[in-house]
Each structure stands twice: as C-alpha cells, then as structure tokens.
Specification:
Number of domains: 1
Largest sheet: none
Oligomer: single chain
Order of helices and strands: HHH
Structural class: mainly alpha
Protein name: EF-hand domain-containing protein
Helix content: 40-55%
Number of helices: 3
Organism: Cladocopium goreaui
Amino acid sequence: MSEIKKRLQTFYKDITTREVKFLLNNQPEITFDELFALLKDNQLTIQRCTG
C-alpha cells in the first residue's frame, strides 16, 4: 500500500493512508484491471492559466 500512496502523492500531496485504504476497498493491493475499471470513466481537465 505504501507504494500506491507514494505514487498518488504526486497528484494528491496530502493523501492519507486511510484514504488510500478506502480507494483500495481495504485490499492490500490492486490489479491493473481493477485500477483501470476505477479510472476509465474519469476525465482529466486541463485549464489554461491566463495572466
């Protein structure tokens, strides 16, 4: 789980172990297929900063 938390901290600096456990449904690890199923319907929105 610590490896997943480390990787998620790239995007979510303050993510807690409790939040990682929730995302993994209290499983010690997750397969690629399970991760893909969780993420496939999400969209990344990029906003351009104007200044």
